[in-house]
Specification:
By secondary structure, the protein is mostly helical. The protein is built from eight helices and no strands. The longest helix has 39 residues, at 138-176. The chain is extended and about 65 Å long.
């Protein structure tokens, strides 16, 4: 009988923990995201959607700028996870590559701009602790981390865009058969 009681307590305990997690989201990240979304939409309305879209087209018209400047700006200004909303300015076939390059930049930006992804600062700080224990400066580490991150997001963006286009072509070819 004790086994069944323990099983039932564990079963309901799992849902209680899920409820606690849900309450944490409702009182934590969700209001923050709603405020960020509201602020970004207000900024877009204030500046003018035409101007924002013109700037976005300028940044995204070139594949190099699309997967370097655009993700860096989105991560710097909107931070994680709001940064992905910049994808709204891209055509559908470029959105997966933009997401891939932006999400890949979450860590490299933290050395220079910790506000962009404070939840992942522990990754950078772990490395930084080792560097400071060696008596070395963090400036060169942060710059290298940032610059290598830009190279990586460019490579990932270009490759993901290529793969996405290839998959779209295959799907269109299958649809015509």
């Amino acid at each position: 009988m004790d086994f069944f009681v323990h099983l039932a307590e564990g079963f309901i305990g799992m849902f209680q923990k899920g409820g606690e997690q849900f309450v944490g989201l409702v009182t934590g990240i969700i209001p923050t995201l709603i405020c960020l979304i509201t602020a970004v939409n207000a900024f877009i309305k204030f500046v003018g959607e035409e101007r924002i879209e013109r700037f976005a087209r300028m940044c995204t018209g070139n594949i190099i700028l699309r997967y370097t400047v655009f993700p860096v700006l989105s991560m710097f200004f909107l931070t994680n996870p709001m940064a992905y909303t910049f994808g709204r300015f891209l055509p559908e076939h470029q959105k997966p590559a933009f997401y891939d390059s932006t999400v890949s930049f979450c860590h490299p930006i933290t050395g220079l701009f910790p506000h962009a992804n404070p939840a992942e600062l522990f990754v950078y700080m772990g490395i930084a602790t080792g560097i400071t224990n060696l008596g070395l400066s963090l400036g060169p580490l942060a710059m290298r981390y940032f610059l290598v991150g830009i190279v990586v997001i460019l490579i990932r963006g270009v490759i993901t865009e290529y793969i996405t286009k290839m998959m779209i072509r295959r799907k269109e070819a299958q649809a015509t058969v």
